[in-house]
Write a structure and sequence with these properties.
Blueprint lengths: L2 H10 L8 H13 L4 E4 L3 E7 L7 E8 L26 H18 L5 E7 L8 H8 L6 E11 L6 E4 L2 E4 L3 E8 L3 E2 L9 H13 L6 E9 L6 E2 L2 E10 L2 H22 L2 E7 L5 E3 L1 H13 L3 E4 L10 H6 L2 E7 L18 H17 L2
Parallel strand pairs: 3-4, 3-5, 5-16, 6-15
Antiparallel strand pairs: 1-2, 2-4, 6-16, 7-14, 8-12, 8-13, 9-11, 10-12
Helix pairs in contact: 1-3, 3-9, 5-6, 7-9
Bound molecules: zinc ion (2 copies).
The site of one zinc ion (ZN) has 4 residues, from loops.
Length: 368
């Protein structure tokens, strides 16, 4: 099976995060047909392991692809459209998976490198806690000297033949915030007998959004106080999102959220609970690796666009926390439309570019 055939097979049979059973089986069969050694990882993932023909095998490069799909009903009219009602590869992970397979097949035949090449087919990128966190917990690279973890993602804002690279801070951490203010509600006219939970929450929201900086987003998108014109409710709730580009800034905002809660408690005599559902860490690209990738790409005749950081999240951040890593974008042309929509359709011509880029980066980092 070549990588375009594999991509179409995966596209026909998309599966939701952490339910990638058939996908896992398809990957396993494709690897077996090529004689590539592997084991399963993180439940529904697969880890291919190829040792180079030369020298010591401690030095390692990890190429990563995410394999899950989204709860969307596909509206594309293509021969390989999704056969699973309500599930669709609308983020290009079918392409990521197929390109990784293409790279591994080629390098497995050649084996003209030093060290160990890992091909990581990772489940559950689209859903908290993220498959990457499960991979990291298993410590599959213990005992290896990991020179680079490399991942790519299709991007409709770039043309086919282009890659987008951002040295350093690239994508944001993503935490869900929930606020609960509780007190003695009651008749709105008897202010002496009640705790003003509504004003306390308003104050808390203003203090929360005051934490916004050019380097961090803190937004509250939902506030619920189900009182009435003359009723102050016992409980007011709110929800929001928080995004940062580095771990220190993230911790700084957490501590402000906690101290704000304390101040509001003291000022209004209410109880305040701030619940932080930690999402993915920020994706911080290794700066040297990013510049080396720019050189490698240019050498391959691939056009490099230097990208600005974006406030979206990716579980690839778990790798950038642990290893020198690079997450770059692969142009699929603006005709692809928006990802996470029912008509997202990236150009398969980009796959050859993505495979060349990944293959060359792997060899570059292994043979250094
Ligand atoms: Zn996505
Ligand atoms: Zn994605």
């Amino acid at each position: 099976m070549n990588s375009i055939e594999l991509r179409r097979e995966l596209h026909r049979h998309p599966e939701l995060s952490f339910e990638e059973y058939r996908t896992q089986q398809t990957i396993v069969e494709a690897l077996e047909a090529e004689g590539i050694p592997y084991r399963t990882i993180a439940g529904t993932g697969v880890l291919a392991i190829i040792e180079g023909a030369r020298g010591n095998h401690r030095r390692a490069v990890v190429l990563r692809a995410d394999i899950d799909a989204l709860p969307i009903t596909e509206l594309n009219d293509v021969e390989y459209r999704s056969e699973s009602e309500g599930v669709m590869h609308a983020c290009g992970h079918d392409m990521h998976t197929a390109m990784l397979f293409g790279v591994l097949s080629e390098l497995n035949r050649e084996r003209d490198f030093e060290g160990t090449l890992f091909g990581l087919f990772q489940p559950g990128e689209e859903l908290n806690p993220g498959g990457a966190s499960l991979v990291i917990k298993e410590e599959p690279f213990a005992g290896y000297d990991v020179a680079a973890v490399i991942g790519q993602h299709v991007d409709a804002r770039l043309e086919v033949g282009e890659v987008g690279i951002c040295p350093g801070e690239f994508m944001a951490s993503n935490d869900e915030l929930r606020f609960y203010v509780t007190g003695r509600g009651g008749h709105a006219a008897r202010r002496g007998d009640i705790d003003d939970t509504v004003t306390a929450m308003c104050d808390l929201v203003v203090r929360t959004t005051a934490l916004n900086t050019p380097d961090a987003v803190v937004s509250v998108g939902r506030v619920v106080a189900e009182g009435a014109t003359n009723v102050i409710p016992d409980r007011v709730t709110a929800e929001g999102t928080m995004r940062t580009f580095d771990a220190t800034e993230r911790e700084r905002i957490y501590s402000h959220l906690r101290s704000n809660a304390k101040s509001v408690e003291e000022k209004y005599g209410v109880e305040v609970v701030v619940d932080i559902n930690r999402g993915y860490p920020s994706v911080v690209n290794d700066v040297m690796l990013a510049y080396e990738a720019m050189i490698v790409a240019t050498d391959e005749g691939i056009v490099v666009r230097e990208l600005q950081r974006i406030p979206m999240a990716e579980d690839f951040g778990y790798y950038t926390e642990c290893f020198p890593s690079l997450f770059y974008r692969l142009g699929v042309g603006d005709k692809a439309g928006g990802s996470h929509t029912a008509t997202f359709l990236p150009d398969e011509a980009a796959m050859a570019v993505g495979e060349r880029m990944m293959r060359r980066m792997a060899l570059h980092m292994l043979n250094k």
